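Weekly structure sync, notes
Attendees: PL (lead), two postdocs, one rotation student
Agenda item 3: pending single-chain targets
PL asked that the sequence for the first pending target be pasted directly into the notes so everyone works from the same version. It is reproduced below exactly as submitted, 128 residues in total.
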Amino acid sequence: MEQKKMSEKIREITGINPRKCMKCGKCSATCPAYEEMEYHPHQFVAMIERDAIEELMESKAIWNCLSCMACVERCPRGVEPGKLVEAARQLVTRQQGGNYLLPDDIPARLDGDLPQQALVSALRKFTR
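Predicted structure, written out during the meeting:
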C-alpha cells in the first residue's frame, strides 16, 4: 500500500483531520512517554498530514505510546493524536499478516525498557 493511501486509510479509520492541528505542542507536553519516543504526538500528526507514513510505521515510537490518551484530552482542536497512533498500529499489524497479537507472541516482543502500561494496553487492544 503506498504512503498516500496509507495516510488516507488512517484518516478514514479515525475520522480525524490532521490539518486541524495548530502545532501548539500541548499534546506532546502532556505525554508521559515523551522521553521514550523518537517521534512525539504532535509529530505523529504532522507526519500523517504530510504522508510520511512509512517513516512513522517503521518507528518504535508507535509502540512506545502508552495509549493513555492524555494527548487527546489536551488538544484544543480535537485532533486526537493517540487515535492516529492506534490506527497506525493497526495498519502495521495488518501488513504483517495478522490482526491480533497472540499471547504466545508476547515474550519475543518484550523490551525491558518498555513501560508496563504499554504492555497492558497492547494486551487490551490485540487480544480481542
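Discussion points:
- The mean pLDDT is 83.
- The first helix runs from residue 3 to 14.
Action: rotation student to compare against the earlier draft before next sync.
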